[in-house]
Design a protein that fits this description.
Rossmann fold, seven-stranded parallel beta sheet, 352 residues, transferase, Glyco_trans_4-like_N, alpha/beta, six-stranded parallel beta sheet, 2 domains
């Protein structure tokens, strides 16, 4: 019976982020859409606790701990995690597939090339080298948007075919978590790190009279939203940290508008999740965000706090505009499913 192994290491990362969401949802969708006779298994490095990766039951545990596994694959050691096929939801992947087996790798964005200043130097080097190798040796690369596919083609010598597979809408629990939120607020969702444009958003909020709610745990870069707010004289900034799915459903339900001012993205899952929840979206002109929103959101130039403030003010001040954006967003979000993303991966390994 053929087996697809999905590397689920991102689920055990200190900050799983949007890539962790992608890994979990794609893993479920791959299992749900498996061709007849195929099985799907998660695999992780050796951890004391693999609980977050137990989506399909206990994962396969590889013999190396996380750092050793990263180093081994970066050095090109041929440690195959088992199975007839492997999908890596991040660039952490074996150097190549053994003869008669297949390997696909998801490349989420080209940030290591376009905005290296928003990552650690080590992170830039690792991502560039692992993506470049996968582009030469994998059976296929999977990317979330045509924007990433186009930019990657200009930056990496590639022999592997590229398949575009957008993310899907996660079915969230019914809202109901107790979070003591403001009555009306601007919402931003995502890891708090430099490329998310949180500094620009907080500056923009200085001219608005509604609070800002940030949902997401701190990432690299040491950004302190409350210190930024104090510097810009902005009151009413609420930092929730990492939220559960139930809490995310609750904060989306109460949001007047979602702000996504990222400098760069590969997809922008919070934009899709907000549209699916009927929340108007104001986003930057990062190409992937423009592609995903498909005209349903308001677009502003990245790094432009004045333009962001103006767009947010217009949405907050017009129930008619917000209603039109809500309807457009719901329609656009219906185009994205995790099962469609899984079918793209299966097309690499099972010839669909």
């Amino acid at each position: 019976m053929p087996e697809l192994v999905v590397l689920a290491e991102q689920l055990l990362a200190p900050v799983p982020g949007g890539t962790g969401r992608y890994t979990a949802e794609l893993l479920r969708a791959l299992a749900a859409t498996a061709p007849e006779g195929w099985t799907v298994t998660a695999a992780v490095a050796r951890h004391a606790d693999t609980g977050p990766a137990e989506i399909l039951g206990a994962p396969r545990v590889l013999p190396l701990p996380p750092r050793a596994l990263v180093a081994a694959w970066q050095l090109g050691l041929p440690l195959w995690p088992g199975g007839d096929a492997v999908h890596a939801p991040t660039p952490l992947a074996p150097p190549r597939a053994p003869r008669g087996r297949t390997l696909s790798v998801t490349v989420h964005d080209t940030v290591p090339w376009t905005h290296p200043e928003t990552l650690t130097p080590r992170g830039v080097s690792w991502h560039r080298s692992m993506v470049a190798r996968a582009a030469r040796r994998a059976d296929a690369l999977v990317v979330p948007t045509a924007a990433v596919a186009d930019d990657l083609a200009a930056r990496v010598r590639r022999t592997a075919p590229v398949r575009v597979a957008g993310h899907g809408v996660t079915e969230l629990p019914a809202p109901g978590a107790e979070l003591d939120l403001p009555e009306r607020y601007v919402l931003a969702v995502g890891t708090i790190e430099p490329r998310k444009g949180i500094d620009v958003l907080i500056e923009a909020m200085g001219s608005l009279d509604v609070p800002l709610v940030l949902a997401g745990q701190p990432g690299w870069g040491g950004l302190d939203p409350l210190a930024l707010a104090a510097r810009h004289g902005v009151a009413g900034v609420r930092v929730l940290g990492r939220v559960t799915d139930a809490e995310l459903a609750t904060v989306l339900r109460g949001a007047a508008v979602l702000a996504a001012p990222s400098l760069a993205e590969g997809f922008g899952l919070p934009v899709l999740e907000a549209m699916a929840a009927g929340v108007p979206v104001v986003h930057s002109d990062a190409p992937a965000l423009v592609e995903v929103a498909g005209g349903a959101g308001r677009v502003v130039p990245a790094r432009d706090a004045d333009a962001l403030a103006t767009a947010l003010r217009e949405v907050l001040g017009s129930a008619e505009l917000a209603g039109r954006m809500r309807a457009a967003g719901l329609s656009r979000a219906a185009d994205f499913t995790w099962s469609s993303a899984a079918e793209v991966v299966w097309s690499v390994h099972a010839g669909r």
